[in-house]
Every structure is written in structure tokens, then in C-alpha cells.
Amino acid sequence: MTTPLIVIEGIDGSGKGTQAARLVKRLEHHNRRVQLLSFPRYTDTFFGEAIGRFLNGQFGDLQNVHPALVSLLYAGDRFESRSVIETAQSAAEVIVCDRYVPSNLAHQGGRLQGAERLELIRWIEQLEYDLYHLPRPDLVVLFDLPVSLAQELISRKSKRSYTDRAADIQEADTQYLSQVRETYHTLARANPETWSMISCHHENDIRPLDEIEQDVWTLVRERFPELNG
Q1: What is the pLDDT of residues 136-166, one digit of tens each?
Q2: Tens of pLDDT along 55-65?
Q3: Residue 160: its pLDDT value, please?
Q4: Which helix (H) or strand (E) holds 61?
Q5: β partners of residue 38
Q6: How far apart are CA 177 and CA 180, in angstroms?
Q7: How far apart (Å, rounded) are the C-alpha atoms in residues 193 and 160?
Q8: Which member of 7, 121, 129, 203 has the greatest number of CB atoms within 10 A?
Q9: Three-class SS of residue 10?
Q10: How many other CB atoms sit within 10 Å of the CB of residue 29?
Q11: Pairwise CA distance, residues 67 & 80, whole Å
């Protein structure tokens, strides 16, 4: 059996990193060998460093760079990391990713509409899965959060390695984040066999972290009963 690849997704500020780390601790508590991978790898790859520069606005405003070109940076970061992924597949019983290929689909596809969006999504999938031979996720957990609440959480983030800004050029663009959220919903509806969505809010409030963690754990145990141990 191949090593399950569980991907945590959602718009910026939706709590992906926090819940990915909590899931890893849960799995380790059940005596599972787990590898946590986070993308982009800003300080570890050539393309990761370039992504940081893009998000800092060094290549121009968000609207000035075509999403197909931006997608090459994120795909290149994972291509550089393929040996890391392969090592994890050999050494671990389960891999948890804080963002992966679906982030590229949603963030770049979200900048286009209609047929152009679908064409770019297919193009990125062909690039990352078929040309770069990256493994496809076995489960994508999508954290859903309104943009207003996500930006509130972004404002509380501590300093990050790739930017000195309070919010990078993607995080600061409300319309862009709304389009990304919409694209995530489209992807989830189109791939129900792989994607599951967890609401991270109740009306206008963010749900407690422990509740969201339990939802993730319940979903993982149902999808991968062999991990229950």
C-alpha cells in the first residue's frame, strides 16, 4: 500500500499550519510515523526564494504577473522538493502537507474566470502530476473561512521568513482571496472522492481550534481506518 498523502488546504489565514501540526501530533500519539511537509519551502529551494520575492511585490503587483507564470514558481518549488517527498514516502506511514498542488490550482485559477480558469487548472495538473510526477493527494481537507475572518487572523500572524510586510500581496487583496475561496469550493465539488470541506466558522465567529482538530481527526480516521491503530 502506498503512503497516504493528506493535504490541508484553505485560503490564507484559515489555520492550515496550526491544524496540520495538530494532526501530526494526533497521529504520532497513535504511534504512526508521520512526515509533515509545508509548501512553499521559502528558504530551502531556489523557487521557494523566488516565491517570497513575488509575494513581497518585487516582480510587480499581483495583477501584473500572469497566473500561468506564477504557477511555474510554485510547481518548481515542489519539483525541487521531489526527493524530499520520495524520502518521506519511504520512511513514513503517512504524509501530512500544509499546502500542496491544490493551492496552486486555487490561487492561480482564482485569478481567471470560466473556461480560462478550467484550462489553467488542467494545465497546472498536467505540469505537476504528469510532467513532474508528483504524487496525487489521497485526501484534501479544505478549511473554509470567510475572507473577513481570514484577514483578521492574518493580522495576528508573527513575522515570517519571506516577508517584512504585515500581509503579503495575496493576503492583502480581499477580492483575490474571495476568488481563491470560490475556486476552492469549485474544486471540492468537482472532486468529492478526494476532497472534504470543514467549516472553520460559525456565523461570524471562528470555531475553537479543538473543535476543528476533532473534525479533522474524525475525517482522517474514517478515510484511513488502517491508521486508527
Answers
A1: 999 999 999 988 887 777 666 555 454 565 4
A2: 888 998 888 89
A3: 45
A4: none
A5: 98
A6: 5
A7: 35
A8: 7
A9: strand
A10: 9
A11: 20
